[in-house]
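user: can you give me the structure for this one chain? tokens are fine.
assistant: on it. calling the predictor now.
[tool input]
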Amino acid sequence: MTMVLKFLISVSTLVLLAGCVPPHVPKHYNFNNPIKRVVLLPMRNDTNDVGGPDVVRSKMEAVLRDRGYNVKPVKESDQILRDQMGINLGGQLDMTTPQKLGEVLGVEGVFYGTLMDFEDTTAGVYNVKKVRAKFKFINTMTGDTIWERGLGVKSEMRMSGGIGTATAIAANIKDIKEKEVPWVTLESVSSDRGFGETMAIGLGTKLLTKAVGIHLGRESTELARRVTGNLQWGPGPGAVAAAPPVIKMPEIKMPEPPSFAYMDYGKKDFSALVVSTSVNRGTNEIYTSDIPLAKAGEKIRMDIDLSRMAKGGEMPPAISKMSTIHRGDRKISYTLYPNKQKYLTHKETEEGYIGEAPKIEKTKVGSEVIDRHPCDKYKVKITYKNGEVQEGYIWNARDLDGMTIKSEIENKEFKITTELKNIILRTPDASLFEIPGGYTEAQGFMELMMEEHKP
């Protein structure tokens, strides 16, 4: 038999092995498993093979479905991650939390994965195929790790005789010492072919399997099947999670944000009442709000009672009252919900962060006295970081170091007038800018609303 024919037989056998279906596994679905829907997240790639994560991920997806999990299609979940969270790679997942991922993707469980090895080494004397990865399964409702395991699989072919054996032993010393993510050898073949023939078979097999898209397919399939051997069974393909309650939010008597227009609070510490009046140009309805404000240095707090601004129904108690605390000194903000004793955290990098400074273009147009404060009146054009532009007027009090005590902003739908009343030039209590004792952090707004609608 010629070397070429031997090579073709070897490749045909590999193709059959890579494409074959694993032996039938009896289904032992756990119908009580609360994790109905899962996502296999983009894998972190610690190898030099850019295509390796996709191969292993596809094999894991198939195995998870076989184990009774309703797996959101990878293409669909990746699109959501890109469009809504700006995540393209597994290495970017540390930017968020499992709870947030569950909320955005609409699942109860997420699988994290790291590809550690994905290589096909052809040396003639010793050829080896290696795939190794570790995975973690997290309940997105609680943040708890349900399952965690790593494994490596490999198959090897070596030249018979002392040199082949010695090379294989030397290559495996490091793998033998690996305990945390151990290796399993699928097969170890000793060949009586010469160096050149063994090298040719190894290289030819690698080129062909890459060309037909099954490179390291057998090793990846076995990795997925074996690593999930101790993973709890899913609830079965027919299980569907209960749909979250439809929450009807009442209409808020306020125009589209920013409802307080633009206010420059200056450098002085003070407390005041923010009085905002909005006129709907289409209906001529007038909406008002009174919001206590406190400022100390770079710290600002507002206490808002939304129940007084709602119409068409009552506000859900969970969010009917809230307080916003902006900590410019820490580059972070919080929203407190007193009725639930919970809070949300907003970092400076988030879109719409309260600390973002807009671009202000001012032109002085006159002087007026507002509430006994001599003021300079300016025409302003305000350009926010999201591209939104507003135009109007502001009045800066000369006796308060230029603090804006009135603003008047107009757009196509609303005319919004905001004034500072009852100004007290005294540093507010420091405790106002801290999260009160007994509060716990919520992982997202929906957590508050879901709790509100628990049966």
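assistant: here you go. The domain at 3-227 is CATH 3.40.50.10610 (Rossmann fold). The CA atoms of residues 220 and 262 lie 57 Å apart.
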